[in-house]
Write a structure and sequence with these properties.
about 100 residues
Length: about 100
């Protein structure tokens, strides 16, 4: 399943800054960053549940916002990109 994860973490105090780093680190383990607080992830349903649980355990539900957009299997037809991009084809080969 192809999902978009977006978040807005309140960073007015050091605890918020720590949560922001933790959310970003967790998202990097599941997908690729396409904007500052936006990640594209191609995950299995069980992995999605794992990711969601992980992020929900990090954020402060009173101060932060977390959104999951389910793009679906036909995601290539639903995405338009304009301007510079640093992302890669999430299903393509990655040579490191």
């Amino acid at each position: 399943m192809y999902i978009l994860v977006t978040y807005d973490v309140n960073t007015v105090d050091p605890a918020g800054a720590k949560r922001l780093r933790e959310v970003a680190k967790a998202c990097r383990n599941y997908g690729q960053r396409v904007q500052n607080s936006v990640f594209e992830c191609l995950v299995e349903p069980a992995t999605y549940v794992e990711l969601k649980d992980k992020l929900l355990s990090i954020i402060n539900k009173e101060r932060d916002s977390l959104r999951f957009y389910h793009i679906g299997n036909n995601y290539r037809a639903k995405i338009e990109i304009f301007g510079c991009t640093t992302s890669f084809d999430i299903q393509g080969e990655l040579i490191v």
